[in-house]
Specification:
The chain has 660 residues and is of the alpha+beta class. Strands 1, 2, 9, 10, 13, 14, 15, 18, 19, 20, 21, 25 and 26 form a 13-stranded mixed sheet that branches.
Length: 660
């Protein structure tokens, strides 16, 4: 086997580097094995020896000398307006290269990335010679597939249907997110996950959103095998997809956006001219700790082409959760800037409708933040003709590119740090292009950016490190709107580390200690633990100065100093709906967060072996005798120590471990 290790300098290499010569003509099924030789992908024509046939793939893992099926035979194929690229014959395949790309991230669950995979490109052709390339990467934790159309002529090509599917084994259990029908506020990926039998139809014709998590039949507990299905590297030349509502025989197929998304504007069918590379279809697999830790969605995206060392992840105060009209009130905005300054948080967000503040108020607030050395973010309606949300603004300032670039340049001159852009409501190609334009223009202006009311991450923050977070999650803002959320938040929170947060930073609003319309039933220790259990490049703390300043001194210190970017992240224990116990390292310190998803008390057996040698100073905030009470403890511990930590119903704990 050829070996190719691509270092940072080659990160943006063209397909010719990774998928280049030599080539050969396969005489049977094409088998691609991961670098550790445990994961095996097989691609073959359906008809076996037929010259022209549909193609399919399957995935196995070696376990104890036996091959365990992870995906059964699953369909491949794509239908363009000018050609049906389904009935195909093999032309050639590239020699399999084992390679990777070493790079570092400014944010995320891990700083240093060193992915490695076995790679090949299979060229197929129709009877009249139209070609389709299937790029394949098999990593130790994943399989990724994508289609390329190599012809470079100028004609417009339109994809009518993508036939890619995922044959999940019978008896699997799924944690799936119902996709929203088009509406004023949707789709926004803000639903509860449903635990269902694999193959069960979605509640509506809209299907299931990414990511889709499955526990495979067989071993339970730590020995269970899992699959997570999603997509990566959706660029401006394609639509965001999801899984269709029906999965006959457990075969989940892709579907395009609903025609009604974005007020019915924009094409459903992706189209482009010239050579065309489509997004990656991604299957992450392994035990639950492997799925949790995977970075493959980011790894499959192109590296940045500019210097982003100016990007600074961080924490932010903001007043909207307490008061919808906070952004119109100069004194309230200044109070939240004071909170950020006193807590040592880097930022404060001025949320929706700041354009309705009294004349001169925002200018004075900007000057005040500059004095306090707190970076400001400003909220914007994404605007454009694709949404009709007119009561939240400003809108129509960043709709078209010339206006957006002018506005972003003005913000940079004022000293604004970033923009939070809301209300996207479509996954059509036209809106995907707007996301990319928005990230590019923000980067050129030197602005950070976050997306709210948005699509799920596809790994864009690798290419655009100024993208610090994306919402696309049912989160703590729902305490203002959704009675069920208060009841089921703890259970929901223990699903997110294994689903939504796997694929990218998640803007959740942790540490809501006070109450909105529907009081939280999670304990205060659970809420504080979310600052470590969840990962986001910018963490928006939603509560008031009063709530935070009334914390016990040890808890207040942890909230002041908890990082938002991590060097390493590990799942210590967990199961969707029951428990998430997560350790993250920043420099020489470890932080541990645990949350109980159950309505009954539970005990966590904590194994500190991840600490390694030496003594450590432990500071822990855990549940007291009642849900809103906190206990703080400190001790000297070592990596050989094991002990139990009790949690109340819907409880949790937060822990910091430092070298003395």
């Amino acid at each position: 086997m050829c070996r190719l290790f691509v270092v940072c300098a080659l990160a943006a290499a063209s397909p010719a580097v990774v998928w280049g010569q030599p080539t050969y003509v396969p005489r049977g099924p094409i088998v691609v094995t991961s670098p550790d030789k445990q994961l095996i992908a097989t691609l073959a024509p359906v008809a076996g020896t037929a010259k022209v046939s549909p193609w399919r793939y399957r995935l196995h893992r070696l376990a104890g000398g036996a091959k365990v099926e992870l995906l059964g035979w699953s369909p491949l194929g794509i239908v363009r307006a000018d050609a049906s690229l389904v009935e195909l014959s093999v032309v050639s395949a590239t020699a399999q290269l084992e390679g990777g790309q070493v790079y570092e991230r400014l944010q995320g669950k891990v700083r240093s990335h060193a992915p490695t995979s076995t790679q090949t490109a299979i060229t197929l052709a129709t009877a009249n010679g139209t070609r389709r390339v299937v790029d394949v990467q098999v990593g130790n934790d994943s399989l990724a597939l994508r289609y390329r159309f190599p012809e470079s002529d100028a004609g417009l090509r339109r994809v009518k249907e993508e036939l890619t599917g995922f044959a999940v084994p019978a008896g699997s259990r799924g944690w799936l997110l119902q996709h929203d029908p088009p509406g004023k506020w949707t789709p926004a990926y803000e639903n509860f996950f449903a635990e269902v039998a694999a193959g069960a139809p979605a509640p509506t014709s809209q299907g299931w959103s990414y990511p889709a998590l499955f526990r495979l039949p067989g071993a339970q507990g730590p020995g269970a095998q899992w699959l997570l299905i999603t997509e990566a590297a959706v660029d401006r030349h394609y639509a965001g997809t999801r899984l269709a509502a029906e999965a006959p025989g457990g075969v989940y197929r892709l579907r395009f956006p609903d025609p009604g998304e974005g007020l019915g504007l924009g094409d459903v069918e992706p189209h482009a001219t010239g050579a065309w590379t489509l997004p990656w279809r991604v299957i992450i697999t392994g035990d639950l700790a492997t799925v949790f830790a995977s970075t493959v969605v980011e790894d499959l995206n192109p590296q940045p082409t500019a210097d982003f060392r100016w990007v600074r992840p961080g924490r932010a105060s903001f007043g909207w959760w307490i008061d919808d009209d906070a952004s119109k009130k100069e004194d309230v905005l200044k109070a939240f800037i004071d909170l950020a300054a006193e807590m040592g948080w880097e930022y404060s967000l001025i949320d929706a409708n700041w354009h309705l503040a009294p004349e001169g108020a925002i200018d004075r607030v900007v000057a005040y933040a500059r004095e306090k050395k707190v970076g400001l973010w400003l909220w914007y309606n994404s605007a454009g003709p694709h949404n009709d949300v007119t009561e939240w603004g400003p809108r129509d300032r960043i709709t078209d590119r010339p206006a957006r670039r002018t506005e972003f340049a003005r913000l940079k001159a004022l000293g604004i740090a970033g923009v939070k852009v809301d209300f996207w409501h479509s996954d059509k190609q036209s809106v995907m292009a707007l996301y990319h334009d928005m990230m590019a223009d923000a980067a050129e202006a030197g602005l950070l950016i976050a997306f709210h009311g948005a699509t799920t991450p596809r790994g864009w923050s690798r290419t655009w490190p100024n993208l610090l977070t994306v919402e696309a999650v049912l989160n703590a803002e729902q305490y203002k709107y959704n009675e069920r959320y208060a009841k089921d938040a703890a259970w929901h929170n223990t699903i997110l580390p294994f689903t939504r947060n796997v694929i990218g930073s998640m803007d959740y609003l942790p540490a809501a200690l006070g109450d909105a319309k529907y009081p939280h039933q999670t304990t205060n220790a659970h809420e504080l633990a979310l600052t470590v259990v969840f990962e986001s490049g910018i963490v928006h703390f939603p509560d008031s100065a009063k709530s935070y300043k009334e914390l016990p001194p040890a808890a207040l210190t942890l909230l002041r100093e908890v990082p938002t970017a991590w060097d390493e992240s590990r799942l210590l224990d967990g199961e969707p709906g029951r428990l998430a116990l997560i350790a993250r390292r920043r420099g020489s310190e470890w932080w541990v967060g645990a949350i109980n998803g159950l309505g009954d008390a539970a005990t966590v057996a904590l194994d500190l072996s991840f600490l390694g040698e030496g003594e450590w100073t432990l500071t822990m905030i855990r549940d007291g005798g009642a849900p809103r009470q906190l206990l703080s403890e400190s001790a000297t511990v070592r990596g050989v120590d094991r002990f139990n930590v009790p949690m109340l119903a819907r409880g949790g704990f937060l822990m910091r471990l430092s070298k003395p």
